Amino acid sequence: MPRKRQAQACEDSIVAFLKRNFSGTAVSLKMGIGDDAAVFRPRGAQELWVVTTDLLLENIDFRRGWLTPAQVGHKSLAVNLSDLAAMGARPRFHTVTLGLPNDLGRSWMASFYRGMTLLGDRLGTVLIGGDLSKSPHGLLISISALGESLHRRLVYRSGAIPGDLLFVSGTLGPSAAGLRLLEVGKLRGESNPERLALHAHRQPEPRCEAGLWLAQSGMVSCMMDLSDGLSSDLPRLCAASGTGAEIYTEKLPVLARSTAWGCDPLALALNGGEDFELLFAVPEKHARSFRAKYPRRFPQVTQIGRLLQGSAVVCRPHAGGPSKPLPALGFDHFRPIP
Amino acid sequence: MPRKRQAQACEDSIVAFLKRNFSGTAVSLKMGIGDDAAVFRPRGAQELWVVTTDLLLENIDFRRGWLTPAQVGHKSLAVNLSDLAAMGARPRFHTVTLGLPNDLGRSWMASFYRGMTLLGDRLGTVLIGGDLSKSPHGLLISISALGESLHRRLVYRSGAIPGDLLFVSGTLGPSAAGLRLLEVGKLRGESNPERLALHAHRQPEPRCEAGLWLAQSGMVSCMMDLSDGLSSDLPRLCAASGTGAEIYTEKLPVLARSTAWGCDPLALALNGGEDFELLFAVPEKHARSFRAKYPRRFPQVTQIGRLLQGSAVVCRPHAGGPSKPLPALGFDHFRPIP
Predict the structure, then answer these.
(1) B110 at the A interface (CB within 8 A)?
(2) Nearest to A43 among B47, B52, B126 (CB)
(3) Closest to A97 (Cβ–Cβ): which among B49, B55, B110?
(4) What's the pLDDT score for residue A174?
(5) How does DSSP assign B186-205, residue by residue?
(6) Cα–chain-centroid distance for residue A60?
(7) Do A32 and B127 touch (CB under 8 A)?
(8) Chain B: nearest CA to A77, how far in angstroms?
(9) CA distance B239 to A52
């Protein structure tokens, strides 16, 4: 679960180190380490194939007391499918590796896989394998997902240029707001915003349909999913595209009513993490057409800023307002604890 | 690491439960849960693609004090590539997910990935992604590997019929014999058999070249890799092919000289696990041709028995000798401790 620590993107530096030293090339490989997912084209295949993998550890990424087994199953698949959504790929297959503590037996597993399969069936992915082990220290879940492009159109983190408009889908911060409720022992919501926040935390919906549409539209220059928080993820998008960015805090689609349980909606929108919404850029020339054509049945999208020359990532209250740096306070496993 | 417990194949029953309840179908899916790896054919692709995944947990699957970081890297990729070898697939891509304890930093990771990359480069697979997390309770490694068929020829666990001859590659038991040395504190071998056993345990060689040749030969009716021990793995092959089997204990290619450090070579060959050799069947009509054509540069192969009618798996000292049941005493994470 996301926790704020001192600003320094250590995980990114490890990924860069691995990419520099241990990534290889292959004719069929289109994208290796460093995007939401890897992309390859099997020889002769009509489509590009996309691979992603995510690890969830008990008491770091989730608590069993706060999620039902079915919700753990849903969420652990959802975080992987969100990576596929961020490329514009269609989910196809997934493998599930479990390290199981002694107290989890057949009935826990049945509920876990049932929750996962409900989501997987709905979004078109099939369980094709995995590995099972006893785990002496808590539940661990490692999932890999495979997706397929449509008409070979995928969107990467790179590809945007300064001036492109920056959008997000949905609302930012509900998952972290839900986590705050759980942390104070509130396992059931008593109001609509509370229920919404708890649901966002427990059963995030990967934006596969919207991601596919965005990739097909031809109007999106770069895209990623928001897993660690906007303040940590946006600099990654900028680094990949070689741009800076400004975001307008007054425009962020926050969960304003989370103030009712003591949250700072803006801070959660910037740093909360686990929203699994899409962050993407649209060149200004497509902006009008994009707004007109984006389907209303999909989660709302909001323009939250703009990509800039340089590498600085800043926030302003609104376009043209005074700027402040945007420190990366999202989740990072490897940031030193102050 | 393999440990003997009461005979009852609990992991198999969980896999069967998952297959029965949670596996799906898709046009492009050729093999889902239940073989060494899953197989799919991307639309239009020339070849079949193969996916496998394996989890290694510190103090269950390996001890850090017994393997260098490079050996941990080698071995964790090797166990995955062995699954691809068992299908006759060529390794192409792999993802690596690490849960890292606090005491493992950049230099440990560099050695780990270097050991892995040495093996990966040699066998043709490229690191394309992964996930990183802190782990509060020991190192965990979850790898997924993707392989590609050649001329769409793969070999499954199913496909054999009664009467087919049963072969293994290499020697059975050295890895477990190496583990015995480590368990008594012998980290360096003092004789050739000791060095061989330690090497087999620390840096198993996946039989990719031999597996590919066997699949291409058209003379092999079924195949799997030996990861949990012959007594546990052979019944899986038989169940998939719908046959029984007899093995000839006098014919097993054991590490006889492991008696020098108190091992029972036959018991280790049957139940030791982690040999990562290939177990496969050859129809009798191909036997002569197979023996003549199998390349001498590959690991030796030995006929160790024969598939039979029915479902019983038995051992005899030699063909026609008195038979005994072969209890599954190989490694099973989920077998109840007596």
Answers:
(1) yes
(2) B47
(3) B55
(4) 98
(5) --S-SSHHHHHHHHHHHS--
(6) 17
(7) yes
(8) 14
(9) 32
Q: Tell me which residue of A246, A255, A257 sits closest to A304, measured CA to CA.
A: A246
B54-B196-B155 Cα angle (round to 5): 40
Q: Which residue(s) pair with B247 in the sheet?
A: B305, B315
Alpha-helix residue ranges (DSSP H) falling in A88-207 = 106-123, 174-183, 192-202
**Chain-chain contact of A23 with B121 (C-beta, under 8 angstroms):** no
What whole-number distance in Å separates Cα of residue A94 and Cα of residue B54?
14
Distance (Å, rounded) from C-alpha B57 to C-alpha B74?
Answer: 15
Closest Cα in chain A to B335:
A134
- Round to whole Å and give the CA distance between B270 and B248: 11
Distance from CA of A4 to the nearest CA of B (A): 15
CB contact under 8 A, A131 and B22: no
Tens digits of pLDDT across chain B (338 residues): 333 333 335 888 999 999 999 998 999 999 999 899 999 999 999 999 999 999 999 999 999 999 999 999 999 999 999 999 999 999 999 999 999 999 998 899 999 999 999 999 999 999 999 999 999 989 999 999 999 999 999 999 999 999 999 999 999 999 999 999 999 999 999 999 999 999 999 999 999 999 999 999 999 999 999 999 999 999 999 999 999 999 999 999 999 999 999 999 999 999 999 999 999 999 999 999 999 999 999 999 999 999 999 999 999 999 999 999 998 888 777 765 44
A313 beta partners: A245
State how far residue A150 is from chain B, nearest Cα, in angstroms: 11
pLDDT single digits (tens) A14-57:
999 999 999 989 989 999 998 999 999 999 999 999 999 999 99
Q: Nearest chain B Cα to A45, which residue?
A: B45
Check A92 against B28: CB less than 8 A apart.
yes
Question: ipTM of this model?
Answer: 0.94
In the structure encoding, which two tokens stand for residue B315, read together?
């051992």
3-state helix, strand, coil in chain A (%, to 5): 35, 25, 40
pLDDT attached to residue A2: 37
**B40 vs A contacts (CB less than 8 Å):** 92-93, 128, 146
Distances (CA, A) of A39 to A24, A80, A133, B92: 13, 14, 29, 13
Under a CB-based contact definition with an 8 Å cutoff, are residues A326 and A249 in contact? no
Q: Tell me which of A144, A146, A224, A227 to substitute to probe the interface with B (most B C-beta atoms closer than 10 Å).
A: A144
A23 touches chain B (CB under 8 A): yes
Side chain identity, residue A217: S
Per-residue pLDDT of chain A (338 residues; tens, 9 = 90+): 333 333 335 888 999 999 999 998 998 999 999 899 999 999 999 999 999 999 999 999 999 999 999 999 999 999 999 999 999 999 999 999 999 999 998 899 999 999 999 999 999 999 999 999 999 989 999 999 999 999 999 999 999 999 999 999 999 999 999 999 999 999 999 999 999 999 999 999 999 999 999 999 999 999 999 999 999 999 999 999 999 999 999 999 999 999 999 999 999 999 999 999 999 999 999 999 999 999 999 999 999 999 999 999 999 999 999 999 998 888 777 765 44
* Count of CB atoms situated within 10 Å of the CB of B291: 14
The residue assigned the tokens 């970081």 is B69
Q: Does A259 touch chain B (CB under 8 A)?
A: no
Q: Which residues pair with A98 in a beta bridge?
A: A132, A141
Tokens 């099973």, located at residue: B332
